[in-house]
Amino acid sequence: GGEPPPAAPPGYYDTSCFKRGDLLEVPRTLFIHFGIYLGENRVAHLMPDILPAFTGDRRQIQQVVTNKRLILGVITKTASVRVDTVEDFAYGGSILVNHMDRLFEDQVLGSEEAARRAEKLVGATAYSLLWNNCEHFVTYCRYGAPVSFQTDKFCETLKMIIRDQRSVLASVLVGLASIVCLGLAPSTTLPTIFIPFFLWMAG
């Protein structure tokens, strides 16, 4: 219930306050990007990337991922766990350190264990927005369980939207059915046959 750790100012990263195995979190406009600090200004993080599907040349793959490479990686479900500098990882954003620890409490693994897990996973990997993204990677490394709260929130929002759309559709259908069955005059009672249908559509 305490205050979250302060974020580093955008564009400035004092790596002396980071410890090996720390979970770094960079809030973006639409999502949060995550990585594991390995020490010596190095961060392991999972990024969608089409390039590992075509080449094993580490020098090419290690170049900064362009938006085109990233989008094609999402589409083709390919990615890599890569090691970048803190600056390249954060890309100008503010960094939160171990902000998720409060959600896992007793599940936090040792810092060295978290770093070693991240290092073992470096290289090409499958990508899934819902099942294997950068948050799954860091939660596995630091807490031993691959989970994504962003994904859970996205799915809940999607369910609400779908439920609302179904409710609107159900209301329209019930309204049309009332007009057809009862005439053009509005009625306050629905035919019994439409009530189960309405309840089903409304979820």
TrEMBL record:
GO cellular component terms listed in the entry, alphabetical order: endoplasmic reticulum membrane; late endosome; perinuclear region of cytoplasm; rough endoplasmic reticulum
GO biological process per UniProt: retinol metabolic process; visual perception; vitamin A metabolic process
Pathway the protein takes part in: Cofactor metabolism; retinol metabolism
Positions of the catalytic residues: C134
Record carries keyword Zinc: no
Alphabetized UniProt keyword annotations: Acyltransferase, Cytoplasm, Endoplasmic reticulum, Endosome, Lipid metabolism, Membrane, Sensory transduction, Transferase, Transmembrane, Transmembrane helix, Vision
Positions of the LRAT domain: 23-150
Location(s) in or outside the cell: Cytoplasm, Perinuclear region; Endoplasmic reticulum membrane; Late endosome; Rough endoplasmic reticulum
Function: Transfers the acyl group from the sn-1 position of phosphatidylcholine to all-trans retinol, producing all-trans retinyl esters. Retinyl esters are storage forms of vitamin A. LRAT plays a critical role in vision. It provides the all-trans retinyl ester substrates for the isomerohydrolase which processes the esters into 11-cis-retinol in the retinal pigment epithelium; due to a membrane-associated alcohol dehydrogenase, 11 cis-retinol is oxidized and converted into 11-cis-retinaldehyde which is the chromophore for rhodopsin and the cone photopigments.
Family membership: Belongs to the H-rev107 family.
Name of the protein described by the UniProt record: Lecithin retinol acyltransferase
Organism (species): Fregata magnificens (Magnificent frigatebird)
